[in-house]
Write a structure and sequence with these properties.
Layout (H helix, E strand, L loop, with lengths): L6 H16 L7 E2 L6 H5 L16 E9 L2 E9 L8 E7 L6 H8 L1 H8 L2 E5 L3 E3 L2 E3 L20 H12 L5 E11 L1 H12 L6 E5 L16 E6 L19 H11 L7 E6 L2 E6 L8 E6 L14 H7 L8 H10 L9
Length: 341
């Protein structure tokens, strides 16, 4: 593990990471949107997506959507294959102090969406934090230890509603809606696995897997998590900030208990320098996979290359595994069971 890094230094590194990620956005962004009708925004029925009735142009659009009494920003990337066929939807949530545009560049997921034919949406938090935003993770402090400000939005409610809102505009398969995110966004993805297991078929937290307490969902949710052993922000072995006490392997083991998996895990090599801890035999065909990347810092595995100034503070970046490719294969293998759709 690297030597301890001060919170202020990590903050500087996160800001640098945000800037570097922002410079890596290649897809054009068109900022436009008329609000949905109140009836469309409130719809949450698991039926065929009404967005399949009209044509949708491929590409990237920035939406401003009225959800939960606020205008919320979401960037949506539609692959070229979107021709009236119901496609999977992946929500990809940014880390603390970042935003939707920076997450789009930081993860490079548009490329995977085009190659594999899924829609990716980058929602944005609403708690101002430096040049970006934080998520309001229930019962948890923000990065740095402060509580969420009074009047902060209910981000769980926002993210639970978002898929049904997007289904009014895009041809989405409701049985194949997934959640991923980085750092603070990964903690939000973990939260959605607990609070919305019948909305999100599977989750894939990157550098931020937790099992929230309480975790009221009764459906066993498939989980694929990625974390580097050289992460100085959310240390692999735990003992970090107030929201980061126990280790990542403990988080995976707790998800395995929640999903009623076999007690014993199986550890294999997924790639050079990457070990896969897998819990199988879970209820409903779920599985819990933890990809441990030796030496990887607080980055998105296999993401676009970051500047040396960023990796000096946040740990090494490796290309040993592509989080985008691996999580997509995992998502594709785990649609929502028909009984819950």
């Amino acid at each position: 593990m690297p030597s301890p890094v001060s919170t202020s230094a990590i903050n500087r590194g996160l800001r640098a990471l945000v800037l570097a990620a922002g410079l890596l956005v290649f897809a054009p962004v068109v900022a436009v949107v008329a609000p949905l009708s109140a009836a469309a925004a409130s719809s949450s029925a698991k039926t065929s997506s009404s967005g399949c009735s009209g044509p949708v142009s491929p590409g990237t659009t920035t939406l401003s959507l009225p959800i939960g009494g606020r205008q919320r920003t979401v960037i949506v990337h539609v692959p070229p294959a979107a021709m009236g066929v119901a496609l999977p939807l992946v929500l990809n949530m940014h880390g603390s102090g970042s935003d939707a545009l920076q997450q789009e560049g930081f993860t490079g997921m548009d490329t995977a969406a085009d190659a594999e034919s899924f829609i990716v949406a980058y929602p944005q938090g609403a708690i101002p934090s430096g040049s970006g935003f934080d998520w309001n993770v229930p019962n948890e402090p923000l990065f740095g230890g402060a509580p969420p400000p009074a009047g902060s939005p209910n981000d769980v409610a926002f993210l639970m509603k978002l898929p049904s809102v997007l289904e009014q505009r895009y041809c989405v398969d409701p049985q194949r809606v997934y959640a991923t995110g980085f750092s603070g966004g990964a903690r939000m993805a973990s939260q959605l696995g607990c609070d919305a297991p019948n909305e999100f078929a599977a989750i894939a937290p990157v550098s931020g897997l937790r099992l929230p307490t309480p975790c009221p969902g009764t459906r066993a949710v498939p989980v694929a998590a990625f974390h580097g052993t050289g992460d100085p922000v959310d240390p692999y072995d735990g003992h970090g900030q107030k929201y980061w006490t126990y280790s990542v392997p403990v988080a995976a083991a707790r998800w395995a208990v929640h999903d009623h998996c076999r007690v014993h895990s199986v550890v294999t090599s997924a790639a050079v320098g990457v070990s896969l801890t897998s819990y199988e035999g879970c209820r409903g065909g779920a599985v819990v996979n933890l990809y441990t990347i030796t030496g990887e810092g607080h980055e998105w595995p296999g993401g676009p290359k970051l500047r040396r100034a960023v990796t000096r503070l946040l740990g090494p970046q490796t290309t040993a595994i592509s989080a985008d490719q691996v999580m997509w294969r995992f998502f594709a293998a785990h649609p929502l069971p028909a009984a819950t759709a």
